[in-house]
Structures are given as structure tokens and as C-alpha cells.
Specification:
Strand content: under 5%
Distance between the termini: 50 Å
Number of strands: 2
Radius of gyration: 29 Å
Keywords: G-protein coupled receptor, Membrane, Receptor, Transducer, Transmembrane, Transmembrane helix
Shape: globular
GO molecular function: G protein-coupled receptor activity
Subcellular location: Membrane
Oligomer: single chain
Organism: Elysia marginata
Helix content: over 70%
Membrane topology: Multi-pass membrane protein
Length: 290
């Protein structure tokens, strides 16, 4: 709240900020899971994709997750004390310990396992899919060369023409199918990168928080002030990675997607063209000459 420091002293500021932090963390993790689940269905079960992945069901799932997260983390308004800095209610400390384990399970363990398993399944399926296409491509080209090689003989002209036509039709069909599959492979690769970067940047923050909680419960806290300082530094670094996760998706799209880079260049080009047109129109006497 650097731009609006007065908001930090508004009533309910601590409760709202803690609540939003919980909800945004939960939704960001599960939206990535939903994204990879949609890609898994599209790649591994393409015939069911139109029935399972439509706009109506997507809205229902997103709305359900949002409502669930709001209800799950509504305790923030009762367990947070309005102080500077924000603090938790001492009477709710036991509840928050149990809830932290539950939150870590829902936002760390389950999404991590789901994303890893879905990514592995999608990667292996795409690899097998591309291997089959390469084999089919080689067989089609081989069949086309062998069938059309004797097209100069009149006695076999009809049969050769039929073979060449069939082979060419098969090649065209295969080329069209391959083009579609390569587009899916590229989008799948991009989403796998996005989800992998999410895991790398997202997990350390929750792991550090869980480690601190377990250490607090098992060993009674830090034995020396130096250990506490080292942990706070590590926790701040993990927190930086966590916040970096919300800003780095643009760079991931830019690096992994040719189509995204093409659209960015087209967008910048359109802005330049519109800027030149507007500058020309503003020049005195241009309107009269036009």
C-alpha cells in the first residue's frame, strides 16, 4: 500500500489483507491445476474435450472454487487483530496452527501432486503422439515415392495414377492433421512451462512457512537469535519468489510461445501505425490537403 499509505490505517485493513492473501494464494494454485486438467483432457481424451471443457462448466468450476475459498478463509475476519503490524488473536492460535496444516495440504501438497502428475501424463502422451506422426509421415512419403516412380509406363498408367492420387490424398490429410497436432503440441508445451515455473516459484514460500511452523511445534522455536535471523532472510527470499510468480507469466509466454510473440509484435506495430496517423491528422493544413 505504498501508493495509498492512509489505507493501512483504515478499519478492517488487516483482516481484508490477510483474507485476500489466503484467497488469492488458493485460487492461483487451483487455477493452474484447472488449466493443466483442461490440457490433459484435450491431449489425452480429445473426444471428450468438447463435452467436458466448455464455457458453462468452466464458469461453474471457477465460481465453485471462488465461493469455496471465500467460505474457507472467512475466519480471517475473526482471527486477525487490527494492529500495526497486523497480528493474530492469541485465543485463535491453536485453531490457526491446525488450519495452517490444512491450508498447506490444500494449496501446497494437492496442487503440487496434481500438476506434476498431469504434466508427466501430458508430456508422455505428446511424445508418443509426435512419434506416431513421424512414423506415419515416413511411411506416406515412402509409399508416394514407390507408387509414382513408374508413372511413365502406359500399361500401368491407371493403377499408378490411382495409387498416386490415394497417396497424395493421404499425405494431404496427414499434413493437415500434423499441422493441427503441432499447434496443440506448442500450446501444451507453453502451458507445461507455465505450470512448472509456477511450482518452482510458489513452493518455497509455503515450504518455508510450514518448516517454521513445524520447527516451532517440535523444537519450541529457534535456539539462537542467529538461527532466527537466517530463517527470516530465507523466508523473505521465498516470499520474493512467491510475488515474482504473479509477474513472470508474461515473460514465460514471451519465451515459450511463437504465437504470443507474433501477436505482441503485431500489437506494437498497430500502436505505431495509429500513432503516426494521429500525428499526421494533428498537423496544421493536413486536413485541407487531404
Amino acid at each position: 500500500m505504498t501508493f495509498f499509505p492512509s489505507l493501512a490505517f483504515a478499519p478492517g485493513y488487516c483482516s481484508v489483507m490477510v483474507f485476500l492473501a489466503y484467497v488469492c494464494s488458493f485460487l492461483s494454485a487451483w487455477f493452474v491445476v484447472l488449466m493443466m486438467a483442461e490440457r490433459y483432457i484435450a491431449v489425452c481424451h480429445p473426444f471428450k474435450a468438447s463435452a467436458l471443457c466448455n464455457k458453462r462448466k468452466s464458469v461453474m468450476v471457477i465460481a465453485g472454487l471462488s465461493v469455496f475459498s471465500v467460505l474457507l478463509y472467512s475466519h480471517s475476519f475473526f482471527t486477525t487483530i487490527e494492529s500495526r503490524p497486523c497480528a493474530i488473536d492469541a485465543g485463535s492460535y491453536g485453531f490457526l496452527i491446525v488450519f495452517t496444516y490444512l491450508d498447506s495440504f490444500l494449496v501446497l501438497v494437492v496442487p503440487f501432486l496434481a500438476i506434476v502428475l498431469l504434466n508427466l501424463k501430458v508430456i508422455f502422451t505428446v511424445r508418443g503422439f509426435r512419434r506416431q506422426h513421424n512414423l506415419l509421415n515416413n511411411s506416406v512419403h515412402g509409399h508416394q515415392g514407390g507408387s509414382c516412380g513408374g508413372s511413365g509406363h502406359n500399361s500401368n498408367n491407371n493403377s499408378t495414377t490411382t495409387a498416386c492420387t490415394t497417396s497424395t490424398t493421404t499425405l494431404r490429410f496427414h499434413t493437415s492433421s500434423k499441422t493441427l497436432s503441432l499447434a496443440q503440441v506448442r500450446s501444451t508445451k507453453m502451458l507445461v512451462w507455465v505450470s512448472s515455473v509456477f511450482l518452482v516459484l510458489y513452493l518455497p514460500s509455503y515450504a518455508a512457512r510450514l518448516y517454521g511452523l513445524i520447527l516451532q511445534q517440535a523444537a519450541g522455536g529457534f535456539k539462537t537469535e542467529q538461527q532466527r535471523l537466517h530463517f527470516q532472510i530465507a523466508q523473505q527470499l521465498c516470499q520474493f519468489l512467491y510475488f515474482l510468480n504473479f509477474a513472470i507469466d508474461f515473460l514465460v509466454y514471451l519465451v515459450t510461445s511463437n504465437n504470443f510473440r507474433r501477436n505482441i509484435r503485431r500489437f506494437i506495430k498497430n500502436i505505431r501505425v495509429k500513432g503516426k496517423r494521429s500525428s499526421i491528422r494533428r498537423r496544421p493544413g493536413v486536413r485541407g490537403r487531404l
